[in-house]
Amino acid sequence: MQERTRPPGASYDIRVTGVKRTPMRDLYHRFLRVSWPVAIVAIVVWYLLANLLFALVYRFAGGVQNLPPASLLWSFFFSVQTMGTIGYGAMYPVTELANGVVVVESVIGMLLTALFTGLVFAKFSQPNGKIVFSNHAVVTRHDGKLTLMFRIGNERGNRVVEATARVDAVVRTTTAEGRTFYRAHELVLARPRMGALSRAWNVMHVLEDTSPIANLTEAMADERELELSVTVTGLDDTTGQTVHGYRLYEASALRFGMRLKDGLSVDPDGTFVFDARRFHDIEPDGNAL
Q1: What residues contact residue 129 under an 8 Å CB cut-off, 6+ apart?
Q2: How do strand 160-174 and strand 254-256 relate by DSSP bridges?
Q3: Among the four 109, 162, 211, 214, which has the fewest Cβ within 10 Å?
Q4: What is the Cα–Cα distance from 167 to 205, expressed in whole angstroms?
């Protein structure tokens, strides 16, 4: 493996080559990942393009009663009426060729309707959790121990039941053969599971001697190109579906000597209040590292 030559903490992309292409499956996954406005526009464009294609056929094939000669616009209108099974009766095929084209279009229209319905249903049925991560991970003192800490939250008003977090630390090492190798270590968390994630959860890893990143410093994080790969999974208590979240913290996202700002307070009447506006806030620790 070749050593990466990039500034410490800088972001990077990996370009994969030599993979067998599956255009239709890739298109399906891409559709599921785009936003709803983009998905709706894509469906409308494909529908209009299909009708435009058949409009061109009707334009040159003819054989449609009351269709103005050489009119692509009215051919398009007739195609939409045919594919949409509207059938006002003002225009209708009168030749064998035109009727044949109508048959082909009706079959393709039925397939497109089934395809678009399936895509929309698949997109609607996707579990869509709103798990959010704090902008920074901090290295601070907690209960007298050097601790790596970041915050996970749930932006929805529901609960993520049996939420489980996993953190992998990826560091640059050198093998016995002198080769550069990026090794992943699973970090032991102080509390890897939360029964019900509603608003905020401080995830902590104690940087003790048994930790693969013990005695972590800013210089060490940059030198070893530290990355923290965080995954969270759980059950949405409303839909019963599994939701997940992912965040990659690079060395540049670590803050040393800082701590997560407390967003929890108590009103005079004893009500606990969590200020979501402080979710990403950090402040100087006050305790020397």
Answers
A1: 154, 156, 160, 234, 236, 243, 244, 245
A2: unpaired
A3: 214
A4: 9
pLDDT of residue 16: 66
- Termini Cα distance of the chain: 35
Phi, psi of 73 (to 5 degrees): -65, -45
How far, in Å, are 71, 90, 91, 110 from residue 79 at the CA level?
A: 12, 13, 10, 14
The residue ranges of the chain whose pLDDT is under 70 are 1-16, 18-19, 22-25, 264-266, 270-274, 287-289
Alpha helices per DSSP H over the chain: 23-33, 36-61, 72-83, 96-124, 218-223
Q: How far apart are CA 221 and CA 218, in angstroms?
A: 5
CA Rg value for the chain: 29
pLDDT score, position 11: 46
Give the predicted TM-score (pTM) of the model: 0.72
